[in-house]
Amino acid sequence: MMSKALAPYTTQCVGIDISENMVAAYNSQAENQGLSHDEMHAIVGDLAAADGPQPADLLSDPSFFGFDVATVGGGLHHFADPELAAARLVQRLRPGGVLLVWDFLPHGPIHGHQYGVMHHGLSEERVRAMFEGAGAGKGFSLEVLGSGLTFSSSDEVMRREIFLARGEKEA
Predict the structure, then answer these.
(1) Tens-place pLDDT, residues 8-28
(2) CA quadruple 102, 87, 60, 65: dihedral sign
(3) Contacts of 153 (CB under 8 A, 6+ apart)
């Protein structure tokens, strides 16, 4: 979703995901939009691996550094260590580059929908500290978007507030 929203304003979008299925879906959507591999593509990888970004040989390539913008769309709550993930993303930004994240504000657990959820939302204080600790605290802002999202299952309806946070890497 973040790549699709930003694509008209970029020359290249590169996605990284640990899920082969998510990478395949990303690449299929890019192709269906008529975008070339050079314009938008994703690879299977893990920037937040405890022992360093994996696959190390691919993600150490200079083409995976110097980005103007790094984004996480609705996924930071899935990382075991969101602070590490943010730091690894900021390392890949050029000086003055922007880290942009949308995710959920704190909420209670969703019954029966826990697959991969490591955190039940992130507070503004935690996100601010995360950006600052990662080196992207300059110009930090966090805005709550609209009235949130509503999820429903057979036995409950849940509303989640969404935020969009941004900060710049120090020059």
Answers:
(1) 888 899 999 888 999 999 999
(2) positive
(3) 111, 112, 113
